[in-house]
């Protein structure tokens, strides 16, 4: 069902650190507007779709949202501390 | 071939494939797009093989392992800075 590959989906380059923006991203991580919530909604809604196109779209977008929210987790305070410690 | 080169090529190809797949979900009869998609997949599979042979497994249960040691567990992991390649020019 799920495959995890040890690589990023796209390159990430932070030109300038912005703690205010990071704070905002963190508050949006969970909750109704977050990517994680969206992913679960796509993945749940696919079961009630009728046409194969609709099922495929909800499935694939749900997977993409899961990937994005998995990357967003790096913004969370505990994780980013670990990242700055490791090289 | 250098790791950075192979990894960035593989990342690009996979990204193209995912994007095309999303398009094809709603345009399943578009033969041109399907042809490009299959071509991209062929190249991606080749590059993936090259990467995994030289630089280690990409997946924990689909990639062949070194018979002496389960390399999957090794550093670096994608969230570590040393894992990723430098972007060309670096102005982002």
Keyphrases for this structure?
heterodimer; A: 87 residues; mainly alpha; 0% strand; B: 92 residues; 2 helices
Tell me the distance between the termini of chain A: 32 Å
- The count of strands of chain B amounts to 0
- Give the helix/strand class of chain B: mainly alpha
| Strand percent estimate of chain B | under 5%
Largest sheet entry of chain B:
none
Structural class of chain A: mainly alpha
**Element pattern of chain A in H and E:** HHHH
Give an account of the 3D structure:
The complex is a heterodimer of chains A (87) and B (92). Chain A is mainly α and 87 residues long. Helix content of chain A is 60%, strand content 0%. Chain A is built from four helices and no strands. Chain A has helices at residues 19-29, 35-45, 52-72, 77-85. The radius of gyration of chain A is 15 Å and the shape is elongated. The model of chain A has no long low-confidence stretch (mean pLDDT 83). By secondary structure, chain B is mainly α. Chain B has helices at residues 3-26, 31-55. The mean pLDDT of chain B is 90. The interface between A and B is medium-sized, with 23 and 30 residues.
Entry summary:
The complex is a heterodimer of chains A (87) and B (92). With 87 residues, chain A is mainly α.
Question: How is the secondary structure organized here?
Answer:
The complex is a heterodimer of chains A (87) and B (92).
Chain A: H1 19-29, H2 35-45, H3 52-72, H4 77-85
Helix pairs in contact in A: 2-3
Chain B: H1 3-26, H2 31-55
